[in-house]
Each structure stands twice: as C-alpha cells, then as structure tokens.
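User: I'm putting together notes for a lab meeting next week and I want to include a structural view of one of the chains we've been expressing. I don't have a solved structure, so I'd like a prediction I can at least talk through. The sequence is below, exactly as it appears in our construct file.
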Amino acid sequence: MSLVQTQQLTKIYGSGEMAVTALDHVSVKIDAGEFVAVMGPSGCGKSTLLHLIGGLDRPTSGQVLIDGTSLGALSDDKLTELRRRKIGFVFQFFNLIPVLDAIENAALPMMLDGMNAKQAQARAREWLVRVGLAKRLQNRPDQLSGGQQQRVAVARALVAEPALVLADEPTGNLDTRAADEIAGLLRQVAEEWGRAVMMVTHDPRIAAYADRIVFLKDGTIVDETRLNSKNGQDAEMVMGKMHALAE
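Assistant: Thanks for the context. Below is the predicted structure for the 247-residue chain, given as structure tokens.
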C-alpha cells in the first residue's frame, strides 16, 4: 500500500454563487522513498492539495490516508500528534525562530512532542550534520545564508523521523545555486533516507529533480510525468508541459 493516498479529494471554499472549487476529485498516491513534485498555474490547487495531505486543512469531501490512517477520522489532538510524528514541513520562508540557533530551531518539534531538551538537541545535531551544517550548529538565522536557513528547516522537518516530508515552494526565496542545492537535498531525503517527499513548485528546473511530476489545472490532475534523470536535466521538457497547460 502506498504511504500517501488521496481518494476523490475535493475542497470547496465558500457556498452558493460564491463557491470556489480549489480541488476537484483528486486521487494521487505517493510511495515511501518517492519524490513527487506538484506543478500547475497559479490558483490551480497545488498548495491546497499539500495542506490537505498535511492535515492543515480538512477536505469538503474525499479523504487523505497517511500510512493507512484516514486523517478525517482523527480528532484535532490525534491529528496534531500524527503531524508531529509522521509529517515534516518545509516552507518557502524557512519559518525559523530568530533568537534560536540552528540546533535549537531544529530540535523544536521533538521538544514540543515531549522529548527533553538534551535528547532533542542531540537528534537535531545529527540531522544538521547530515544536511551539511556541521560548522553552523550555533548560528542564529541572521548569521546564515538563505540556503543554510532552508537546510536548518529541512533538518527540523526530519528530526522526528517522519515518513513524509511536505515542501511548499522550498526554493522560492533562494538564488539559483542555493535552489539547486536544496532540490538535490530533497532528492537525497527520498533516495537515501527513504522518506516520501511531496514538493509544490513553480520552477520546472527544480521540479525536474523529482521522480514524478503531477500537473494540476483548475483543481484537477491533467497530467503525470515520470522522469528518468532526476537531477534537473529534464527541465526543458517540464517547461514545455507547463507552457502547454497555460494555453
């Protein structure tokens, strides 16, 4: 069974004449160790899909299953617990706490889940070293580059050993070099560390690091493409598909 499944997932905002359908009967699966990018025009439902899979919002109809558990069947407390333990989040603007250093920022999810500070920080140190920040452990966010801040965010997403990492435009606030490095790191998260990764992006070059790209338009899946290179070399082909969607 796939780690992530959505079944006829629908999200409607508003009602009556003001109703807007953000997602319309979307069914998608993601396996453990698979890196899936989601692309499409602005307003097509990319972030809505990510938020529903992450349990940050609830669908109008349909369901999301994470490792066989239906999110709709969980109470708010149980849903919060599942998010902390099975899902890691990476956002465009890093969302680091300015007064905390890299270790303290990365350790937060474990401390919120009840682990003592010493153990949580030891776990955070391990992941920060894995993502290439061994020499920046005591640096605060204002002492780090954008790419380094996003690496801290990736370590924070992984510190609870989640099965799934959700990344919403993770390279949107980075220069080209740092963006490629973060895309390569997410590729590593899936390929070497066995996590399922779903990434929303508007950048064909970054999407081309994925195993598979799901294209959305007007809230529905209009195409799925499996990539061969997985290192950004198929960016031109991905760009062509995006142009076709925009027509």
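A couple of points you could mention at the meeting. The first helix runs from residue 46 to 53. The mean pLDDT is 93.

User: Perfect, that's what I needed.
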